[in-house]
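Archive maintenance. Older records in this collection stored only the sequence; we are now back-filling the structure field for every entry so that each record is complete. The fields below show one back-filled record exactly as it appears after the update. Entries are processed alphabetically, and Putative thiosulfate sulfurtransferase, mitochondrial is next in the queue.

ARCHIVE ENTRY
Title: Putative thiosulfate sulfurtransferase, mitochondrial
Organism field: Cyphellophora attinorum
Length field: 219
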Amino acid sequence: MASKSAATPLARFSRLPLLTSATTTQQVPRLTARCCTTATTAQPSRTAAASQSRVSAPIRHSALPNIIGRDYSTSPISRKEAPPPSSSQPPPQPTELKPPTLYTYPEIASLSSSPDPSRILIDVREPSELLATGTIPSAKNIPIKSSADSFFLSPEEFEEKYGWERPGEDTEVVFFCKAGVRSKAAAGLAQQAGFGGRVGEYGGSWVDWEANNGKIEKI
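Back-filled structure field:
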């Protein structure tokens, strides 16, 4: 009886499949592949986390000021305004130049025949031109092409150079040339330099004077 009962448990185990060397060889690679796959899948996550930690670390510990969350004002920067001018000194007013007075042949002929100290007729052609053609009687000469700076000379320098006084504010200067181009430029320079108080120009100039058979003064 004892031998029968002892054989029964052994018979029970004999039904279980045995783990042979062939079975072990087939199952071990599968387990190894699963482990490798799991390790490979988890590796990028740890690598990305480490990389993110290295990138974000300089930002967290950066010496730059923390500008996030600050309340910046958008109001315009105030500027100091200039103090109002003193009541005792009125603000300077811009000087507006008046256009030159335009003269015709009859007016120039009258001025030439009856010279007026307060109105000076000025020929701005070059001396060589005056020698060739003559000039309008009583006219003075300031060659604008070669002596444009004459309008800016001091009264002493001007009188020393030309032998007559520099026109003041109470004097009108009337310019002419050959065809009205240089006389227009001379009128502009005279206004800029304060040469005379009033400025005029004979637009027809010498061409118009000759066409009207005006008197000629030889130089």
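Update note: The chain is about 45% helix and 10% strand. The longest strand covers residues 119-123.
Entry marked complete.
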